[in-house]
C-alpha cells in the first residue's frame, strides 16, 4: 500500500524521522545492564498477537537439518523456526536498553557441518549517532549467546537491508567466518567469530556512503562476494571470488549495464554448478526501477541472461512496469529448479518466477496463487483480498521439500507447500513498531494499539490477530494519535498517515470507524497526536511533519465537522485531556519547560508551572485516571515529576532518576491509588517497573531475557486487571506482562 512508503521502513536512516524513531536513548555515566533484584515479582511476557507486521529481510533453511530455519528482520531481531510447535521463537529479546541498535539483524549464518551453530551480525543503523555492530555466536541454535563487539557499523534498517546474507561460514573450515560490511570492506575471523580483522586482499574499496558487500555465498569450495558500489559500466566490477580464502579476484566476463548495477542475492545449484544472481539498479527495497537475473556456470565461466521478464514495459492501464529483482533460491533436490522474486514492482505487483529448466522458461506463481489470510486478516489492507506482497527480497526453498517455499514482504512471511495455496507462515514473529496504546475500562477489547505501518488495531483477543484487521474507514499506514473519552469510553478518535483522510472517530469503542467530516489542510502532510476531552465533546489535534516541522494545533467542538486554530497551544506538543473535568486540557512545551493549561475546553491555553526541564528529546505528560489535575511528567534522564494542582506546580519524584514513559492500571487490592507502570531507572537499571503505592517504591517486572531493546514509546496498565501491563516496543510489537 502506498502509505507504507511513508513508514519507518521506507525512510532513510539519518533523517529527522529516523532519528525521532530511534530517539537515541543513552544515559551518560550510568550503567544500564539489567540486574535481577530480590523484589522482582515473577511475570509472564507475551506478544499481543498481530502476526508479522514488519519487513522480514531474510530466511535461511539449514541445509542438513529438516525443519530447522531462521528468519531475520530489519528492526525486530531474529527468530528460529520450531517445527514441532509450528511457530517462530524470538532469539534476541535479551538485548537491553543500551543495545537498542542491535535489534536490527544485518545478516545470519549457519554452519552446515555443525547444525547447532548459529551466527548473527547485528546493527540497525550505520549513522554517526548509532553504535557499532556486534556478532552473536551460539552453539545451541540461539538459546544462549556469546558476543563479539565490532569496530564497524552495520545497517539492518538502511537501504540494501533485503540483500543477501553478508555473513558466511567458510565451507572449508568451520572456524573461519566472513562478514561483508557496508562501509568497511570485508572482515574475516579465524576463531569462529570471536575476533575480526579486515580481509586486506579483498579488492572492494571501503566507502563511507556506498553499499559495500551485498552478499556472500559458497559455490562448492569457492566463495563469491557481491559488491554494491559499481556504476554498471563495463569498467566496474561487482562480483568477486576466492578459491583459497586469501586471494580475491574479479569474476571474468561479468555483465554490464544499469540493470545489473547492484547484485542483490545469489544461490548455487550444486547439480549444474550454476550460480544464479539477481540484480537491480539500486539496493532496494525502494528505488529500484530496473533489474535482471544472470546465471554463471562456475565450471566454464560462461554467463547467461535468464531474466524472466525485463522491467520497463507497460501495464494494461498504461503505467510503467518498472522494478528490480530480489530474492533467489535453488532447489537442493532438483537440478535446474530455481525461484526468483521481483521487487518494488508497484504497477503490476511483485511476483515469484519459477523455472525447472535452468532459466530457459519461467512461470509466475502469482498467476495461480490462492491466499488464505484468515489468521492475519490485516493483510487485506482494507480491501476484499490480499495482494501477493511488496518488498520481496527474502526468499527460501526448503532443502527437504521442493514445494515448500517461503518469501518475506514488508509485512509478513508467506509460505506454500503446493506452489498454489499460500498462507502466512508468520506465527511467533511480531515486528510492529507500536506507538500508542489504549486499554479501555469497559468493552470486549482490553487493548487498542496504534502502530507504524499498520495503523490501529482493535484487539478483541490478545492471542489471535485482530479479526477486523487494520482499522478502516479510512485505512492508515502509520498511526500518529489515539485517544478515548474518559467518561464516554465508547468514543475513540485516531489520527495517522492515510490516503483517504487522516482522522477518524468511533462510537463503539474502536470496533468501527468513520472519518471526520472535514480536517485541517495541514493534516494530510503532518498528522500528529490527537486528544478528546473527558466527555468527547471537544477534539484537539496537533500537527508534526515527519521531518520534525511543527504546526499550530486545531480544535473541533462538532466531532470534526469544523476546525479552528488554537494559537495559544504550543506547536508540536501533545494534548492531554483531564480525565475528570471536560473543560480542562494540558500541554507541555518542551522548548521552554512550561506546563500550559486550558480551562475553557481547549479554546485558550495559559502558562502555569515554568522552569521545568526543557530541550530533552523525550517527554511524556500523563494524567492519572479518575482524578482532576493529577499530572505526571516523565522526562527521560531528568526523572519523574508530579503535580496535584493541575500543573500549577510540580515536585520531583525521588524514587527514580530516569523515566522514559509512564502509565496507569488497576489499583492493587487495598490500595488507594492506581498502579503505576514505567520504563525508567530507580537505581542503575533501566527496566520496566510497577509501583502500587503512588511511586514511593518500585519493583522491576521484566527480566534479563525480556528487554526488547528500546521500549520508551508507551506503557499502560489494564484498568480492569491489576498487574497486567502493555508495553510498546520498536520492532517487537506490543508486549504484555502478567504476574504468575
From TrEMBL:
The keyword Hydrolase applies. It comes from Streptomyces dysideae. GO terms for biological process: polysaccharide catabolic process; xyloglucan metabolic process. Residues 1-33 form the signal peptide. Keywords: Carbohydrate metabolism, Glycosidase, Hydrolase, Polysaccharide degradation, Signal. One of its GO terms (molecular function) is hydrolase activity, acting on glycosyl bonds. PANTHER family: OLIGOXYLOGLUCAN-REDUCING END-SPECIFIC XYLOGLUCANASE-RELATED, XYLOGLUCANASE (EUROFUNG). Gene3D superfamilies: YVTN repeat-like/Quinoprotein amine dehydrogenase. InterPro entries: TAT_signal (IPR006311), WD40/YVTN_repeat-like_dom_sf (IPR015943), Xyloglucanase_GH74 (IPR052025). This is 1,4-beta-glucanase. It comes from the Bacteria. Belongs to the glycosyl hydrolase 74 family.
Amino acid at each position: 500500500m502506498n502509505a507504507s512508503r511513508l513508514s519507518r521502513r521506507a525512510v532513510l536512516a539519518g533523517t529527522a524521522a529516523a532519528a525521532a524513531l530511534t530517539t537515541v536513548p543513552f544515559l551518560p555515566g550510568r550503567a544500564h545492564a539489567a540486574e535481577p533484584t530480590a523484589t522482582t515479582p515473577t511475570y509472564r511476557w507475551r506478544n499481543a498477537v498481530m502476526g508479522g507486521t514488519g519487513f522480514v529481510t531474510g530466511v535461511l533453511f539449514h541445509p542438513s537439518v529438516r525443519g530447522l530455519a531462521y528468519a531475520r528482520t530489519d528492526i525486530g531481531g531474529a527468530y528460529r523456526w520450531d517445527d514441532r510447535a509450528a511457530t517462530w521463537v524470538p532469539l534476541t529479546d535479551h538485548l537491553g536498553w543500551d543495545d537498542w541498535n542491535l535489534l536490527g539483524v544485518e545478516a545470519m549464518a549457519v554452519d552446515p557441518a555443525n547444525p547447532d551453530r548459529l551466527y548473527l551480525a547485528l546493527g540497525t543503523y550505520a549513522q554517526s549517532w548509532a553504535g557499532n555492530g556486534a556478532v552473536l555466536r551460539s552453539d545451541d541454535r540461539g538459546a544462549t549467546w556469546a558476543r563479539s563487539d565490532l569496530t564497524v557499523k552495520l545497517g539492518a534498517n538502511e537501504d540494501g537491508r533485503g540483500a543477501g546474507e553478508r555473513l558466511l561460514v567458510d565451507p572449508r573450515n568451520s572456524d573461519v567466518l566472513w562478514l561483508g560490511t557496508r562501509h568497511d570492506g570485508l572482515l574475516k575471523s579465524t576463531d569462529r567469530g570471536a575476533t575480526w580483522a579486515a580481509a586486506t586482499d579483498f579488492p572492494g574499496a571501503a566507502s563511507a556512503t556506498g553499499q559495500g558487500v551485498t552478499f556472500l555465498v559458497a559455490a562448492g569450495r569457492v566463495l563469491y562476494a557481491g559488491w554494491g558500489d559499481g556504476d554498471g559500466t563495463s569498467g566496474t566490477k561487482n562480483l568477486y571470488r576466492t578459491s583459497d580464502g586469501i586471494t580475491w579476484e574479479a569474476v571474468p566476463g561479468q555483465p554490464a549495464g544499469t540493470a545489473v548495477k547492484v547484485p542483490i542475492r545469489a544461490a548455487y545449484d550444486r547439480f549444474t554448478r550454476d550460480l544464479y544472481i539477481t540484480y537491480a539498479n539500486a539496493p532496494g527495497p525502494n528505488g529500484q526501477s530496473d533489474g535482471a537475473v544472470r546465471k554463471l556456470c562456475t565450471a566454464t565461466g560462461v554467463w547467461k541472461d535468464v531474466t524472466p521478464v525485463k522491467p520497463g514495459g507497460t501495464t494494461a492501464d498504461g503505467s510503467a512496469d518498472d522494478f528490480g529483482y530480489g530474492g533467489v533460491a535453488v532447489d537442493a533436490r532438483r537440478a535446474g529448479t530455481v525461484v526468483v522474486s521481483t521487487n518494488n514492482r508497484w504497477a503490476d505487483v511483485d511476483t515469484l518466477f519459477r523455472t525447472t529448466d535452468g532459466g530457459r522458461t519461467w512461470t509466475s506463481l502469482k498467476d495461480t496463487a490462492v491466499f488464505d489470510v484468515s489468521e492475519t486478516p490485516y493483510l487485506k489492507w482494507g480491501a476484499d483480498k490480499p495482494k501477493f506482497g511488496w518488498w520481496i527480497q527474502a526468499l527460501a526453498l526448503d532443502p527437504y521439500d521442493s514445494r515448500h517455499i517461503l518469501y518475506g514482504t514488508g509485512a509478513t512471511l508467506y509460505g506454500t507447500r503446493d506452489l498454489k495455496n499460500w498462507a502466512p507462515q508468520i506465527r511467533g514473529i511480531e515486528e510492529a513498531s507500536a506507538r500508542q496504546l489504549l486499554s479501555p475500562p469497559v468493552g470486549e477489547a482490553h487493548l487498542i494499539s496504534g502502530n507504524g505501518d499498520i495503523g490501529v488495531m482493535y484487539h478483541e483477543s490478545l492471542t489471535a490477530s485482530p479479526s477486523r484487521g487494520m482499522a478502516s474507514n479510512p485505512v492508515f499506514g502509520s498511526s500518529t494519535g489515539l485517544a478515548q473519552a474518559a467518561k464516554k469510553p465508547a468514543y475513540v478518535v485516531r489520527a495517522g498517515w492515510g490516503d483517504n483522510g487522516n482522522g477518524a472517530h468511533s462510537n463503539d469503542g474502536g470496533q468501527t470507524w468513520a472519518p471526520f467530516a472535514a480536517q485541517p489542510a495541514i493534516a494530510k502532510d503532518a498528522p500528529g497526536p490527537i486528544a478528546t476531552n473527558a466527555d468527547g465533546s471537544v477534539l484537539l489535534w496537533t500537527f508534526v511533519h515527519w521531518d520534525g516541522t511543527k504546526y499550530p494545533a486545531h480544535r473541533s467542538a462538532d466531532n470534526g465537522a469544523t476546525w479552528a486554530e488554537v494559537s495559544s497551544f504550543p506547536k508540536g506538543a501533545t494534548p492531554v485531556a483531564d480525565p475528570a473535568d471536560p473543560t480542562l486540557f494540558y500541554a507541555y512545551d518542551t522548548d521552554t519547560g512550561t506546563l500550559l493549561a486550558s480551562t475553557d475546553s481547549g479554546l485558550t491555553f495559559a502558562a502555569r508551572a515554568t522552569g521545568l526541564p526543557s530541550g530533552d528529546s523525550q517527554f511524556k505528560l500523563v494524567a492519572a485516571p479518575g482524578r482532576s489535575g493529577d499530572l505526571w511528567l516523565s522526562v527521560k534522564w531528568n526523572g519523574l515529576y508530579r503535580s496535584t494542582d493541575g500543573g500549577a506546580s510540580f515536585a520531583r519524584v525521588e524514587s527514580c532518576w530516569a523515566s522514559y514513559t509512564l502509565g496507569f492500571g488497576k489499583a492493587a487490592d487495598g490500595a488507594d491509588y492506581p498502579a503505576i507502570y514505567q520504563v525508567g531507572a530507580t537505581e542503575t537499571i533501566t527496566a520496566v517497573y510497577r509501583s502500587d503505592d503512588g511511586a514511593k517504591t518500585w519493583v522491576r517486572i521484566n527480566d534479563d531475557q525480556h528487554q526488547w531493546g528500546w521500549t520508551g514509546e508507551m506503557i499502560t496498565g489494564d484498568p480492569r486487571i491489576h498487574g497486567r501491563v502493555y508495553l510498546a516496543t520498536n520492532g517487537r510489537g506490543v508486549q504484555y506482562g502478567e504476574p504468575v
